[in-house]
Amino acid sequence: MNRELVRPGVTCLVALAAVLAGATIATATIPAADGTVHGCVKSSKGQLYVIDPSAGQTCGKDNVLDWSKPGDGGLEGLPGPKGVTGAQGTAGSSGYETMRDQQTADSSGNGSAEADCSNGKVAVAGGYELSSSLVPLHSAPTSDGSGWVVYVTGTPNAVFAAYAICVTNGGS
């Protein structure tokens, strides 16, 4: 039985060549950084093949063919028609004023105060000021919206007040 030994030097050279070829393929930049794929068309047979110009590859005598390359920008379009004018909004509020009604709780500690707006105005907010240990039971606009009413309980003969923030409804 005859055996032939392969020389270790030849085996190492073949392995090194395979590693270098793999490294070259691994570092190829197809497509290019801008997304373009570079290729060539064989003049005689019309076959396509891809190249990597960053690795020094060229088409030689074959025809160059690049794709997925952004095209030139087009002309700017004409301006569109003017939009329709919107409807007139409702008038806002004006004639801001603050009204105040100061009262004193009765001998049992109960009381009410009503801050009324001037004629033609409505309360948009309101509140109360309390002294001693009075507790508010109710604080709200009047039933017709023309003022603010407050009901309290607590310390007899204590001073408190209701206030209303009033505006002219619909503006003027």
Can you describe what's shown?
The protein is mainly beta and 172 residues long. Helix content is 11%, strand content 37%. The strands form three sheets. It has a three-stranded antiparallel β-sheet, with no helix packed on it. A three-stranded antiparallel β-sheet has the order 4-9-6, with no helix packed on it. Strands 5-8-7 form a three-stranded antiparallel β-sheet, with no helix packed on it. The longest helix is centred in the N-terminal third of the chain and has 19 residues, at 8-26. Residues 1-6 have low confidence and may be disordered.
- Indicate the low-confidence ranges by residue numbers: 1-6
Give the C-alpha Rg. 46 Å
Helical residue percent? 10-25%
> Architecture of the domain at 94-168 in CATH?
Sandwich
Total strand count, please?
Answer: 9
CATH topological fold name of the domain at 94-168 = Immunoglobulin-like
* Gap from first CA to last CA: 120 Å
Counted by DSSP, the helix tally is 1
Order of helices and strands: HEEEEEEEEE
What profile does the largest beta sheet have?
A: 3 strands, antiparallel
Q: For this structure, what is the CATH class of the domain at 94-168?
A: Mainly Beta
